[in-house]
Specification:
This protein has one helix and eleven strands; from the N terminus they run E-E-E-E-E-E-E-E-E-H-E-E. It is mainly β. The strands form four sheets. The protein has a four-stranded antiparallel β-sheet with strand order 4-3-2-8, with no helix packed on it. It has a three-stranded antiparallel β-sheet with strand order 5-6-7, with no helix packed on it. The chain is globular, with a radius of gyration of 18 Å.
């Protein structure tokens, strides 16, 4: 996601993904009023799932959020890094009427952009989440110095990157 303006604990609740019936699960910003993004599931009843430790979300910057459930543990990742875990065994209650960017009754709209929203039939591993974040696995990634940076030449490190899957070679 990319927010139109910076998001923090002073901002109103905004829903990323919400099920119209069943009320849960949902991915929501600032539900608890701490600036967190959380995953609120329904396994054997409504439970408080994992929330992010990140509490401030700068405007105009893309963030990758992923939530997983493997039948016993809920995880939430920010930009490929695990930030929250809640253990709860069970089967998720069915819900229907998937809403993206709003809550049922058309409220709590998300103010920003969302791209490449995906739902899987399995819990992705941390490695799979990092691979999904790359979008195109055929191109080079992870440049150092990073894209858009202007390193001080005196302290510059050698240019490095990770090759794409179809790279002929990498030196």
């Amino acid at each position: 996601f990319r927010a139109e303006s910076s998001l923090n604990a002073n901002d109103a609740r905004q829903d990323f993904i919400y099920w119209q019936t069943g009320d849960r699960p949902h991915f929501t910003f600032n539900r608890n009023g701490d600036g967190e993004i959380g995953f609120w599931p329904n396994v054997g009843g409504e439970i408080d799932g994992p929330v992010t430790t990140t509490r401030a979300w700068p405007a105009g910057r893309w963030h990758h959020i992923a939530g997983t459930f493997d039948g016993s543990t809920f995880n939430i990742y920010v930009n490929g890094i695990l930030e929250g875990t809640v253990s709860q065994s069970g089967v998720h209650s069915d819900a229907s009427g998937l809403l993206i960017g709003a809550r049922s009754a058309q409220r709590n709209y998300f103010s920003g952009d969302m791209d490449d929203v995906r739902l899987y039939k399995k819990a992705l591993t941390a490695q799979e989440i990092n691979l999904v974040m790359r979008i195109d696995t055929l191109v080079a990634w992870n440049p150092n110095p990073g894209n858009g940076t202007t390193p001080y030449v005196k302290n510059a490190t050698p240019l490095t990157w990770s090759p794409g899957e179809k790279a002929a070679r990498h030196e």
